[in-house]
Design brief:
The protein has helices at residues 301-306, 325-335, 338-343, 369-374, 402-413, 416-425, and strands spanning 50-55, 69-74, 78-81, 87-89, 102-105, 153-155, 160-163, 170-173, 179-181, 188-194, 200-203, 205-215, 220-230, 243-247, 257-262, 266-269, 273-275, 288-291, 313-319, 346-352, 359-361, 382-386, 392-396. The chain is α+β, with helices and mostly antiparallel strands and 430 residues long.
Length: 430
């Protein structure tokens, strides 16, 4: 249908005025009141070392039609230079708005001089330049503008060696972060660490720490350094005969402490503790474990029992005479279990007879005051078990079997150290 002016309505026509205002090129006056019904096409927009992403109001099939708006970008390692360097629009006269920008490389100062922020003086890459023989731009010809692919400069700390701390098998190591700079614009995008952080504990051995730096052009450079941790050790100590050693840490590393202990019935002669020094030598000298010397020529039962304090357990047996049936039965059972008694550090004390013919013996004989001190009767068989602290732990009015005695001691009287040693060495009496 014709309008009042006698002209046909304009169909299928798009005006660039509907777009946001952007710089436009010269516009030719239309030869008729309405543009042509068919779209006017601009030349395909190409940019060397870049790409144009276009959007047409007529749809995706019209990539260069009237009103098409294109956004320009460069490939990695290049940047846009020139006016109207971001957007261009297909105009009515069949030309693109603005002037054609170019993609220039983010080039090294050693390869190009800058005549201005937007108009650098480009220098071609020299033939055989390492800039175009590696990295993502190695396919480019050497005659074009040289893209910046030189990696950033990174320098790691020096390698170092540390001694493990006293009593430990590790060392805490600190270091300063690497020094990184970019020779193009000085901007480092990120620095990544591969390995433990500074201030971490490192075990014995050699450890490699790596750093990788990336610049804005995604070029990268790496460096590494090593940390070596040494554990100083002393010679391995040997346990004394009839004794054993209990050590801290790893047993013979710098700062470890070893304690010498003797089996039941033996006493330590010499130093009890030795320490591994930084010179890798032990303090002191090795002690000996010698049989206990029991002094029966004392004035009281307490003086006699003090000799066994923290060394031996005592099974004190009292009977009216050597012919007592319970006494003979008890002694017979204990003689057959001598290994188990010694394994559990048990010394047997026998108090036999009545005045004036009573006899007390630890193989030889304690003073007669033991019965009174331990509240034992002379009139019939009875026995008492004392622990290593001298405490009364169990009493018997009939002979006790070795198995019953051993179960009670293993269950209630063994120290943690004794239990651990038994678990390690097993039962030699089996």
């Amino acid at each position: 249908m014709a309008g009042r002016s006698g002209h046909r309505p304009c169909l299928g026509w798009f005006s660039p005025s509907l777009l946001p205002p952007l710089p436009l090129a010269r516009r030719a006056p239309p030869s008729s009141p309405c543009p042509p019904a068919v779209p006017q096409w601009c030349a395909t927009l190409n940019i060397h070392r870049g790409e144009a992403t276009c959007y047409s109001p007529r749809g995706s099939s019209y990539r260069s039609s009237l009103g098409t708006r294109c956004e320009l970008s460069c490939t990695r390692g290049y940047r846009l230079v020139g006016p109207s360097a971001v957007h261009r629009i297909c105009m009515e006269d069949g030309h693109w708005s603005g002037s054609e920008p170019i993609c220039v490389g983010k080039f090294s100062p050693t390869l190009a001089g800058h005549a201005g922020a937007d108009h650098p003086q480009l220098l071609p890459c020299p033939q055989g330049s390492p800039h175009i023989q590696r990295g993502p731009f190695r396919h480019l010809p050497p005659s074009g503008p040289c893209p910046y692919v030189e990696p950033p400069k990174i320098r790691c700390p020096d390698s170092r060696e540390r001694i493990a701390e006293p009593g430990k098998l590790t060392a805490t190591v600190y270091w300063d972060p690497p020094r990184v700079r970019d020779s193009a614009d000085g901007v480092i995008k990120r620095v990544m660490l591969r390995g433990p952080e500074p201030g971490s504990e490192f075990p014995e051995g050699e450890h490699v720490i790596r750093y990788t730096a990336h610049d804005q052009a995604y070029n990268r450079a790496s460096c590494k350094f090593s940390i070596r941790v040494q554990v100083r050790r002393c010679p391995v100590l040997k346990a004394p005969q009839n004794g054993y050693i209990s050590c801290t840490s790893d047993g013979n590393n710098y700062g470890a402490t070893c304690e010498y202990l003797c089996d039941g019935g033996y006493e330590r002669q010499g130093t009890s503790l030795r320490v591994c020094q930084s010179t890798q030598q032990w303090t002191g000298s090795q002690p000996l474990c010698t049989p206990m010397q029991i002094n029966t020529d004392v004035n009281s039962a307490a003086s006699l029992l003090d000799q066994f304090h923290e060394k031996r357990r005592l099974l004190v047996i009292s009977a009216p005479d050597p012919s007592n049936r319970y006494y003979k039965m008890q002694i017979s059972m204990l003689q057959q279990a001598a290994c188990g008694l010694d394994l559990r550090h048990i010394t047997t004390v026998e108090l036999v007879g009545q005045p004036p013919h009573e006899v007390g013996r630890i193989r030889d004989g304690p003073p007669r005051t033991c019965r009174r001190f331990l509240h034992l009767t002379r009139s019939h068989f009875n026995a008492v078990l004392l622990d290593k602290a001298g405490a009364d732990r169990e009493r018997y009015i009939a002979p006790v079997s070795p198995d019953e005695l051993f179960v009670f001691i293993d269950t209630y009287l063994l120290s943690e150290r004794e239990a651990a040693r038994r678990a390690q060495s097993g039962d030699p009496c089996e």
